[in-house]
C-alpha cells in the first residue's frame, strides 16, 4: 500500500494486482485462521476442515450483523457527550465530532445484560462464529460499494490525499472520500471505534461462556480471564482517550474505502478475538509466577503506550504545556517542534513499542503449543513497521533537515538497540 497522498505512482499495474490480491486474500485469511483455531491441531500446517460453503451465508445471521451496526449507530447519535472539533480540513473548515463511546459502551453492556436476562443465548455467537464473519464481510463490501459510488460526487476538497487515482479497484480499496458523512453522521469515525471494537469484546465474552460450557467449569480459566481483561482494558483506554483518535493518521489522512471498512468491521472483531476463541478449544494452564509475569509485561507495555501517546497529544495541543517543560525539543521550519527526550528520545515510535509489548502479553496466556494465538503480534508488528516507514517518509517531507537531526539524535525506530 502506498503512503497516503501518493496517488501519482499508482498507474503501475503491479499496484492494482497487489490491491486485488489483498482484497481476496485478507478475507480468506481471516476465515482460514478461524477454522484452524477451532481444530484440535491448530497448526497452520494442518489442512483446515472446510465447512460447506452454502452454510456460511445465513440471512438470519446477516440480519443480526445489520442490527448490531444500527444499534451502535443509534447510540452514536444520542445527544450525550461533548462535541469537539477535529483537526482543520484542506478547505479551512473544522468538522465536529460527538465524544460518547463510553456512554455507548455502558448502554451496550446494559442492553446485552437485559437481553441475556430475557433468555437470549450469547452462545449463538460461538456457534455461528464463521457465519457472523462472512456476514460482516458481506456488509463491509456493501458499505464500501456505497462509499465508492458516493465519492464520485464528492467535492474535490473533501477527497483524501490518496485513493483518487482514477482506477476503480485502487480507489475502491483505499477510499476516495476523507470523511464521508450522512448529515452529521461520520461513517469513518463511527466504524473505527464502535461496531468492531465493541464487537470484539462481545465475542470475547461469548467465548468465555463457551469455554465454561464446553469444559463444565464454574469459572472461566485464568488464561481466559487475562485475555478478556487485557482486551477490555485496551478498548476502554481507547474510549477514555477518544478525542486523541481525531489526530491519528487514519482519521486525518486515510480515505474510507474497503481497506478500513473491512479492517474495522471484519478484521478487528474476528482476528483480535482469536486468542479467546483458541482458548475455548485449547485450555492453557498457567502457574501463579507466570500469571504475575504476563500481567507485569502488559502493565509495562500499557504504561509506555499510554505515556507516549498522551505526551505527544498534550505537546501537539499546547507546546508550552508546563508538565512537559522538562523535555528537550528540536524546532522545525514549519513552526512545530519535535520531542527528543523522555520516551520520544528512546525510540522514534515509543507508542508502537508499548503496543507491541502489550500484544505479546495478550498471546502468552495461550501457551506455546501453536503459533496461531501469536497472530495478533505478528499482524501488529507487520502493520506498525509498515506504518512507521510511511510516517517517516511523511515527516521527512514535512520537516526536512530537522527530521534528519531528530533521526541522528534518536537512532532507533521502534525497539531500542534492535530496530
Ligand atoms: N491495535 C492496532 O491494530 C493498531 C494500533 N495503532 C496505535 O495507534 C496509535 C496511533 O498511531 P499512528 O497514528 O500510526 O501514529 P502516531 O500517533 O505515532 O503519530 C505519528 C505522528 O506523530 C508526530 N510525531 C512523530 N514524532 C514526533 C516527535 N518526536 N515529537 C512530536 N510529534 C511527533 C508526527 O506528526 P505531526 O508532527 O504532524 O504532529 C507523526 O506524523 C499508536 O499508539 C499505535 O500503536 C495503530 C495501528 C493499528
Ligand atoms: C489488514 C488490514 C485490513 C488492516 C486495516 C488496519 C486496521 C485494522 C487498523 C488501522 C489502524 C487501526 C487502529 C485501531 C484498530 C485497528 C485499526 C483500525 C485502534 C482503534 C485500536 C485501539 C487503539 O487504542 C487505537 C485507538 C490507538 C487504535 C487506532 C488505530
Automatic annotation (TrEMBL):
One CC-aspect GO term: endoplasmic reticulum membrane
UniProt membrane topology term: Multi-pass membrane protein
Catalytic reaction(s) noted: 4,4-dimethyl-8,14-cholestadien-3beta-ol + NADPH + H(+) = 4,4-dimethyl-5alpha-cholest-8-en-3beta-ol + NADP(+); 5alpha-cholest-8,14-dien-3beta-ol + NADPH + H(+) = 5alpha-cholest-8-en-3beta-ol + NADP(+); 4,4-dimethyl-5alpha-cholesta-8,24-dien-3beta-ol + NADP(+) = 4,4-dimethyl-5alpha-cholesta-8,14,24-trien-3beta-ol + NADPH + H(+)
Enzyme class: oxidoreductase
Lipid metabolism in keyword set: yes
InterPro entries: ERG24_DHCR-like (IPR001171), Sterol_reductase_CS (IPR018083)
EC code(s) of this entry: 1.3.1.70
Predominant subcellular localization, coarse grouping: endoplasmic reticulum
Pathway: Steroid biosynthesis; cholesterol biosynthesis
Coiled coil spans: none
Transmembrane parts of this sequence: 12-36, 56-78, 99-117, 129-149, 222-240, 252-274, 286-305, 359-380
Cell compartments where the protein resides: Endoplasmic reticulum membrane; Nucleus inner membrane
GO BP of this protein: cholesterol biosynthetic process
GO MF: Delta14-sterol reductase activity; DNA binding
Pfam families, sorted: ERG4_ERG24 (PF01222)
Keywords of the record: Cholesterol biosynthesis, Cholesterol metabolism, DNA-binding, Endoplasmic reticulum, Lipid biosynthesis, Lipid metabolism, Membrane, Nucleus, Oxidoreductase, Phosphoprotein, Receptor, Steroid biosynthesis, Steroid metabolism, Sterol biosynthesis, Sterol metabolism, Transmembrane, Transmembrane helix
Family to which the UniProt record says this protein belongs: Belongs to the ERG4/ERG24 family.
Name listed for the protein in its UniProt record: Delta(14)-sterol reductase
Gene source species: Oncorhynchus tshawytscha
